[in-house]
Amino acid sequence: MPKGKGAKGTKVTLKIAKKAIRMTPDGRRRLTLSNMGITIFPKCLLKLTNVDELDLSRNLIQKLPDNIGNFSSLRWLDLHSNKLESVPETISNLVGLTHLNVSNNRLTSAGLPSTMGLLTSLKSLNLGMNQLDTLPTTMAALGNLQEIGLFDNLFINLPEFLSGLRNLTKVNMKRNPLSYAQGDAEGMLKKKSEPEGDVYLVHESSLCRTCLKRCKEQGENFTRGGGGGRGGGEGGERRGGGDMFEEKRIRTYAGLIAPNSVATVNQDAWRIRKVEHKTIK
């Protein structure tokens, strides 16, 4: 890690970056430049187009370059705990990206481009700890998405298009001002303003017979109870066996939660926390 820091933060040279590349157990080239006080995305990194995984988390980066798409072989990108306010439209050029973590930044809904929907290889997306209240509707095309983190944002409603993502099984919506959360493909279930556990969207085909029966019974119990402020007539039209079900359990998933996301300290405190990295030989 370079020691010199000027007014623009730590300067990362191509030589430093090359020395920081390690091979992962599954044979991927991983470049880790986490927690280095970097304020500007190092342009020299764009020359390392053969990098498969890039970790620039816990820095002070405010903007990504428009030619971020030059990382043609990138499969895994971690930018959590920076100061990003937007994502460039050219992010769509990372067509092979399967894991993207931009949690704990300053992203607003206006800062998420519609081209996010072109990242069709994505399996895991972490957008937690930002200032989002909606998502681009084009993200309905993310058919391979399996898990998404939306915790600690400003969502009042669960994005409706999530119900159409056939491979999506894990959703983290903790600590959002939710008034409704999607319970099946036909409507929205009234929820508390701050859910106590993780929200799981599970397809009917993924449930065993016992769990499927339990979900249907819970749905029937809910509608018999009036469902809160909704009228009984509307609740009576709801069917328990929709395409998706909601379960609440006290569990967490590493793919959805960054190390700092469960902390009560601020971003800066996490950036200066020392992290030990094991070198893979």
User: Portion of residues in helices?
Assistant: 10-25%
Structural class by helix and strand composition: alpha/beta
Number of strand segments? 14
Largest sheet: 8 strands, mixed
Low-confidence stretches: 1-7, 180-200, 225-254, 257-266, 274-281
Distance between the termini: 18 Å
Q: What is the string of helix and strand elements? A: EEHEEEEEEEEEEEHHEH
Average pLDDT taken over every residue = 76
Percentage beta strand = 15-25%
Shape: globular
Q: What is the CA-based Rg, rounded?
A: 21 Å
Strands of the largest sheet, in order across it? 3-4-5-6-7-8-9-10
SS element count, helices: 4
Report on the architecture of this protein:
This protein has 281 residues and is of the alpha/beta class. The protein is 11% helix and 18% strand. The chain is built from four helices and 14 strands. The strands form four sheets. It has an eight-stranded mixed β-sheet. Strand 1 and strand 2 form a beta hairpin. The longest helix has 16 residues, at 209-224. The protein starts with a strand and ends in a 10-residue tail after the last helix.
